[in-house]
Amino acid sequence: MGNYVQNLSARVNLIASADTWIEGDAIQQLQNTAKLPGMQYVSGMPDLHPGRGYPVGAAFFSTDYIYPALIGGDIGCGMALWQTDIAVHKANLSKLEKKLGNIDGPLGEEWQDEMANSIAAQTGFQQALGTIGGGNHFAELQSIDKVYDAPLLDALALNKQQLQLLVHSGSRGLGQFILRQHIDLHGHHGLAVDSADCAAYLQAHQQAVQFAMLNRRLIARRILSRLNANGQALLDINHNLVLPAQMHGLQGWVHRKGATPADVGPVVIPGSRGDFSYLVLPLASDLSLCSLAHGAGRKWMRSECKGRLSPRYTVTQLSRTKLGSHVICADRQLIYEEAPEAYKPAENIISTLEGAGLIKVIARLRPVLTYKTRGECCE
Fold first, then answer.
1. Stretch 49-54: mean pLDDT, rounded?
2. Cys-Cys with 289: which of 20, 58, 59, 332 at CB 3.0–4.6 Å?
3. What positions does the entry give for GMP binding (predicted)?
4. Model confidence, pTM
């Protein structure tokens, strides 16, 4: 593992190499969470960055208490990978972009039966189903750019001759509603695991996870329908949730906030819209609390992005990337906030996880067409 794991204390570590950009505020937030009652171990991923009181890109293992505030308001957020039947050599980006159009609004009548038959849809937030949202959420057509392990790629039934579709979204307003309910009643305090309040939160939490998975499926199918294409779901992995787990010989609860599980098979770790994503096979370890980075991780605060980049790039220029891909984002603020320059290099994140002995890389994925939003930012 070399110098890829920094032990900040007996119960706190950081998976990072010497050249991994990590803000001091993020490390301080990481260490602060270790002081919460019942918190046993905390592990920061190489994409660690400051959040609203708690770091993003980290896993937390507790006994006796769970902490909804650590999970945040986007319960169930995650990524789904679909294999499409769109031939790479026939992909015309301008035509694909035109066909896709606007998918920010509610789903049409043709989708209502499917939503009505889902328990996850009976939440009062049905209008958000099938929509991506704002922030760092996206849907992206990708091509397989480089293969590192052909047998593993073949086992997943991924076809180099066809485009893939990666969808990153969560539970939308439902997760925010559940978090607000908790904060109104309990502030940022934890919930005793044997309490009625904990049981009620976990029930709502599970509903939000189901909602998020349904949302990603509907987004993917909506996009494929617009493109007159077919597709098959291969992976769907949540990176914001709390689950019972055994770590370091203890039975407790693992909280993931922007952290991909390492015990569910292959996962995708995306870069920014102008960088490569990576399909990897996790090598589960208690060292990282069975978790991995969930992306490249922010390097700049959102509030400073437009000031840094607007003197250098127009909105039109930001709709094209150095890798030749197109970006759909009509929100003028968001397109600056989500610029590739605002994120860490994905290659550094991957090499750090490799160096720490936590992953085996299967393939590198190149962005082709990234959809952020056509209208106003949805969150």
1. 92
2. 59
3. 136-140, 239-240, 277, 294-297, 372
4. 0.95
